[in-house]
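@channel anyone free to eyeball this complex?
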Amino acid sequence: RKEVEQDPGPFNVPEGATVAFNCTYSNSASQSFFWYRQDCRKEPKLLMSVYSSGNEDGRFTAQLNRASQYISLLIRDSKLSDSATYLCVVNKGYSTLTFGKGTMLLVSP
Amino acid sequence: ETGVTQSPTHLIKTRGQQVTLRCSSQSGHNTVSWYQQALGQGPQFIFQYYREEENGRGNFPPRFSGLQFPNYSSELNVNALELDDSALYLCASSLAGEFNSPLHFGNGTRLTVT
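replying in thread with the prediction:
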């Protein structure tokens, strides 16, 4: 089993749609969790951290369920500019990040 | 505040050659981590350097080696290049003790091995 598994993509959605990405992780000792966004041929950039209580940043909502070892990202009112690959990331400690394979999102007009 | 910078941006090498990639850490950061991202995959942890010593390593062979300098900048060296080493190499810096903080990456070096 891979350490971090994400929904296979790509997700093709129209502008304005709501889209959800799911992620599971295998190491119960994982300490912190993030979603990164990666544009084509660019470096990954932090989108948001994920907290146990759930957190929201504008149109983006992240959830963490430690018992199920499950992380999610919800994007509301999708924009063309949201088109990118979304990477689920787990920190096992000491700034060592484990990345999922990523899920590509394509938002069309 | 200067972020993480990497050089070169792109590099083409032949199988069997050796390559050195460079990373300057963000001001105030004393730890450097290197990641390899093959096409269609997420980044994979190669190793981390702290106080000029390797401080954790992923599942990479010994021909992947590194250095950290007193100014916290770092090099990644890859010997005996193989075609599968073609990837985007990412560097990130952090501050020791901030174990659960996210990482901010440089813009990467894209290595092509032919």
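from a first look: DSSP finds no helices and eleven strands in chain B.
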